Each structure stands twice: as C-alpha cells, then as structure tokens.
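Table S2 (text version). Query chain:
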Amino acid sequence: MGIKDKAEELKLKAEARSEDIEGTIREKLGDFSDDQQAVEHGQEKQEKADDLRQEAEEK
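Corresponding structure-token output:
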C-alpha cells in the first residue's frame, strides 16, 4: 500500500467519523425535540459514515 492509498484511507476514515458524530448529534437532538425528520436525517448520516468506513477498509 502506497503513501497515497494510506492517505486516502485516513481521509475516508476521518470523514466517516465526522459524519457519524454529526449523525449521532442530529439523531439525539431530534429525539429530544420529538422531531422525527431530524432523527431520520441523523440516521442517514450514520449510514453514510458506515459506507465511508467500508470504502476505507476496502482500499
């Protein structure tokens, strides 16, 4: 694995972590305010984070 591949993997993992954190926060805030749309948006962010993690692991 070259340096460029490793850098891309780290970038994807960092982006996944960011999406996961944002998704968790949005989901919790939606639960708190009884905003189902916010909960769903947060869950979508977490799914995107899972996809990014999987992509990073495949590289």
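Notes on Table S2: The chain has two helices and no strands. The mean pLDDT is 88.
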